[in-house]
């Protein structure tokens, strides 16, 4: 960890010596919350599911009403590497709904996530769903930018 901090400080010094400090900015976020409910169902084996070398795509959108109230949603599509390599056949989707209030840098929100397998037919094999999950989040998030 110390090496990473030293490396980042050296990189910041190098960048600041090459460019003006006016070009630098930083973003930050701190979030604390509660998971009032959640479940992860395994339909078949109880083996550890290896997520190494996983590829995903993500889309998210929010709509603001009166500058403070927002509603949004998103989807992450998960694609694991098989013996044949990567393909455009997804293994599962993580759907997200979020609603809340944002005033300045403070956001109070409710978020629901549900993860579902994407049952597809690949290479003449039927994909058997092995998992499904859902959880809710209620939290406070502080987000800002330093320029």
Biggest sheet details: 7 strands, antiparallel
User: What is the domain tally?
Assistant: 1
| Mean model confidence by pLDDT | 77
* Strand element count: 9
Strand content: over 45%
Describe the global form: extended
State the end-to-end CA separation.
Answer: 26 Å
Question: Rg from C-alpha positions?
Answer: 21 Å
Helices, by number, come to 1
Structural class from helices and strands?
mainly beta
Helix coverage percent: 10-25%
Order of helices and strands: HEEEEEEEEE
Low-pLDDT ranges: none
Topology:
Layout: H1 2-18, E1 26-34, E2 38-42, E3 55-65, E4 69-79, E5 92-103, E6 106-117, E7 121-122, E8 125-126, E9 131-146
Antiparallel strand pairs: 1-9, 2-9, 3-4, 4-5, 5-6, 6-9, 7-8
Keyword list:
1 helix, 147 residues, mainly beta, two-stranded antiparallel sheet
Summarize the structure.
The chain is mostly beta strands and 147 residues long. It has one helix spanning 2-18; strands at residues 26-34, 38-42, 55-65, 69-79, 92-103, 106-117, 121-122, 125-126, 131-146. The chain has one domain (22-146).
């Amino acid at each position: 960890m110390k090496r990473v901090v030293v490396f980042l400080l050296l990189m910041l010094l190098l960048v600041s010596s090459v460019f003006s400090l006016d070009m630098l900015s930083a973003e930050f976020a701190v979030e604390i919350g509660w998971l009032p409910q959640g479940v992860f169902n395994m339909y078949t084996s109880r083996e550890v599911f290896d997520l190494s070398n996983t590829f995903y795509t993500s889309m998210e959108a929010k709509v603001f009403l009166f500058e403070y109230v927002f509603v949004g949603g998103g989807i992450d599509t998960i694609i694991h590497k098989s013996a044949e390599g990567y393909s455009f056949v997804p293994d599962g989707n993580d759907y997200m709904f979020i609603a809340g209030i944002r005033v300045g840098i403070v956001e109070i929100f409710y978020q629901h996530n549900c993860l579902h397998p994407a049952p597809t037919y690949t290479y003449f094999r039927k994909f058997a769903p092995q998992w499904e999950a859902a959880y809710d989040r209620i939290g406070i998030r502080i987000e800002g930018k330093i320029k």
